[in-house]
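User: Here's a protein and a ligand (zinc ion). What would the complex look like?
Assistant: Let me lay out the input and then the predicted complex.
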Amino acid sequence: MALRLEAGAVGRTIRAMSNPLLDFSGLPLFDRIRPEHVAPAIDTLLAKANAALETVTASDFPARWDAIAKVLDVATEELGRAWGAVSHLNSVMDTPELRAAYNEALPRVTEFWTRLGADERLYAKYKALNEAQKTAEPDRRLSPARQRALDNALRGFVLGGAELQGEAKKRFAEIQEEQAAKSQSFSEHVMDSTDAYTHYVREDELAGVPEDIIQATKAMAEGEAKEGHKLTLHMPIYLPVMQYATNRHLRETMYRAYSTRASEFGPTERDNTGLMKDIVGLRQEEAVLLGYKTFADVSLVPKMANNPQQVMDFLRDLAKRARPFAEKDMAELRDFARTDCGIDDLQAWDVAFVSEKLKEARYAFSDQEVKQYFTEPTVLKGLFGLIESLFDVKILPDTAPVWHESVRFFRIERASQLIGQFYLDPYARTGKRPGAWMDDVRGRWKRPDNGATQTPVAHLVCNFAKGVGDKPALLTHDDVITLFHEFGHGLHHMLTKVDDLGVSGIGGVEWDAVELPSQFMENFCWEWDVVQKLTSHVDTGAHLPRELFDKMNAAKNFQSGMQTLRQVEFALFDMRLHAEPGRESDVQSVIDEVRQEVAVNIPPAFNRFQHSFSHIFAGGYAAGYYSYKWAEVLSADAYAAFEEAATPATGVLSPEVGRRYLNAILEAGGSRSAMENFKAFRGREPQIDALLRHQGMS
Ligand code: ZN
């Protein structure tokens, strides 16, 4: 079967079956996509998308939503879907050939999206369409969801510089390029400084460190034909050394190296001091070009928070409430260091070590013990059962072409109607990126080309350890929380009822609210009723014993006061740096002030944490790091509605509250603001109380 393109879009027909990336008739043909398919498919789809852009921006093309969508959105959706399949495979089945094909095509794809987002002609069409709305007869007006998609698009054009003229426009584009290059250098310096450090030690210097780390560091030294053990600053080595090494001098050495990466204490060519100044300066210049006072203001335009002051007030309030608990955490830590570890002057390099010892002394249980109960089939059965009862759906096994034999595929139905489908790729393997994530394969969309409703499809990717022999995989409680978290994102994507692509599911959801449904799901992992259904011991089939569950619960909020203050410290530093123009010339003074204000545990003067804070200097979190805590307030308060409605019969699993949450939050997705969704569910604005209570700080 050949795929017919829109007449006039590109003027030729693609033989879809010869290149699996060009077959959009159903689910992606993951079993047939090869590296050599990437370049020709992306070339074809880019040509088609470019032709579509030219078509809809022609002066005689009507400024009508449907007309534009039918040509442009259909073309860009195909490009997005095919590129999504390629990037997915690049993330989960990396090979040198695929990586080369991906990197070869990446700049062309990025260039297209950037250009599309700042195209003045397209912006003019959407503006004309928006203007016409104001005088349109009620029956000709866009639906509220579609109007929101249009508003988002217009805002994107403005923030993308589409309104700038002449020199300003030229400078705006230069700023984008300079920022991208400097951010890339920033993250390379962090990576290179981390990689460059090695420290060789004798075995007796590693007293206290777990056996697997001793073996691994020995093997690394042997690999270089060296004696002893090779230590590095990579997390899997650095962290256990800091947590378990009884050798205080070693911990200090490692801490100094780690906390001064990419700073003036290392080689000049890897020092990020100048880059931080430049990056923040460029952002400020961009903000002024766009007509804003500070970059913090620009960053908040598409977010739920209204202005930098509101965010700073929120963070300071949280700090004030967490402070007594953090002080108590710190006092306990100092006492324990003195009485049980022989450390009278607790230093930064002792904190992880003493904390670990205190935790062991206080809550005697191991992850290893807990794991035996969370067998993967039982966890999945329990999770699916929970989703089915709360959200009135059925989850059933389904079939689709997959990229690896361990990948499973499921469908979600309501009253025998297909709602969405998902791939579950649970296990770690070579060539698969670490971590866990949800990604969309395609979004829910009432297609403008044929009027059919495209159902959403999601990727749920984890990196659990596979079961040994014929035993099922055993998950740690952290793994279970991760699985629930990603399913929360997945449900947000798949249970939407919105028909417009830009605002269906997670589309168009504010950055600082997008973690609401995911963090929300994590709460169920701490409910006794739910946990029982998630557990059956790998050998005996027994549920998790109450006594062990109680110990896990007691350990849940260990040092939550100190951890909260640390997050507030990072977030407040980020927000102030981007809200106080000029401060970038002395970044250290900003973090020093923030620490004086909120920290209970002030790091040594040589600490250069900010020099490796890639989230804000090389990631998407600039003036946005607060989002983690912000969304946590929303998710905790949403969950509290279930706690308030709990009865002996249903526990927290009230089907009635579940349906309301489904309607107000999951189904509405980005079609309304996050605040409207929240108020529709809760009947009021979010409150911080539930978060404090869940974290043992009330
Ligand atoms: Zn998440």
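Summary: The pocket of zinc ion is lined by residues 485, 489, 515, 518 (CB under 6 Å).
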